[in-house]
Amino acid sequence: MIIAVDGPAASGKGTIARALAAHYRLPHMDTGLLYRAVALNLLRWGGDPESEFQALRACDFSQIDFADPELKSETAGGIASRISVYPAVRAALAQRQRDFAGQAGGAVLDGRDIGTVIAPHAEAKLFVTARPEVRARRRFDELRQRGVTTHYEDVLIDIRARDDRDSHRAAAPLRRAEDAHLLDTSDLDREAAIAAAIALVERAR
Ligand code: C5P
Hints:
Residues 3-202 form the Cytidylate kinase domain. Belongs to the cytidylate kinase family. Type 1 subfamily. Keywords: ATP-binding, Cytoplasm, Kinase, Nucleotide-binding, Transferase. The chain has helices at residues 13-24, 32-45, 52-57, 74-83, 87-101, 114-118, 132-145, 152-168, 190-204; strands at 2-6, 28-30, 107-111, 124-129, 181-184. The protein is an alpha/beta fold. The chain has one domain (2-204): Rossmann fold. Cytidine-5'-monophosphate binds next to helix 2, helix 4 and helix 8.
């Protein structure tokens, strides 16, 4: 069984995808990490995110440790969202994701275009969302816990900018697949969101 989990930043899709993977004993891929790895390469090489050519050259994971906390930084996330608009970058990362989705026994992948582009034939598709103010609050709390000093308003502005870029780009924009189940986590705590996700997957398979 392939489970596709898509949605905007801080919607809870990562938490839900990890919980589904544990529940169904499936391998999990956080595809945002691939885009973040390209961003981190560019940062380290001093490359220009405005250049599609340089971003394409940064699609090289030989020096990347996927456990590196820098991948999770706001800087890497912001640049990831800028370089993810390039069709050449998306194409370079697509095969890795399709191979992961195609492994025997299935997989859980979370991202922006799993249900629409990477695995349109996935048995179960979830589109996880939440109000921008709620997502900004979650991201703000998470950053504060990590000791990052920031303002809630700045986080909200960043979330809205990221939503706008991800939804309006020409190549594989963030959108709900027609056959994806919508899961709004705005008023759900972690446990309730996971239970709702499992119930939706059970209905789909
Ligand atoms: O999910 P995460 O915040 O880690 O993703 C970082 C950025 O990578 C997103 O803002 C989005 O622009 C891009 N991305 C994408 N397609 C995916 C996963 C992430 O375009 N499947």
